[in-house]
Amino acid sequence: MILPIVAYGESVLRKVGQEIDSDYPKLKELIANMWETMYNAHGVGLAAPQIGLPIRLFVVDTTPFSDDEDLTPEEQQALNGFKKVFINAKIENEEGEEWDFNEGCLSIPEVREDVKRKPAITISYVDEDFIPHRENYSGLLARVIQHEYDHIEGILFTDKLSSLKKRLLKSRLEKISKGKIKVDYKMRFPNLKKAR
To answer: Does the reported pTM lie above 0.85?
Structure first.
């Protein structure tokens, strides 16, 4: 089932997610709905807070990035078919020289900005079967994971921009929170009563 994605301004996007256990109600169904919602919106990642749930869960499928001709064959191969569920994730380490990359977010449509992030991470998490993992990622894979991880920490990519950029974006962000945008996927806006 396709769920509405909550827009910038919804308080759930500012909450640090709670850990969940394998008894979380209808977890498999929730994960299936998150995949369907993400693909419907042409995203490469979706975190539970973006569908209104303040829990530590996000999904990532970077396959669409694997067609990017600016990437090396090795990078394309790493991104192609990378599809994972991250539950109760904790980034243990970030390292390397920060680099800029243009990011967007399904909760902040029509806004894209260059964001600085470190290129390599170590992350621990459990998958949908609650099997624990501790893995290292780098490059674009690390970036997508960092972006989604920020969501379960109550952080948006716009928080990482300079104060000047934030001021320049203020009116656009206010329009998003009021639903004054056109998107081709279901959204829920903080200042409107129902999803559209």
So the answer is: yes
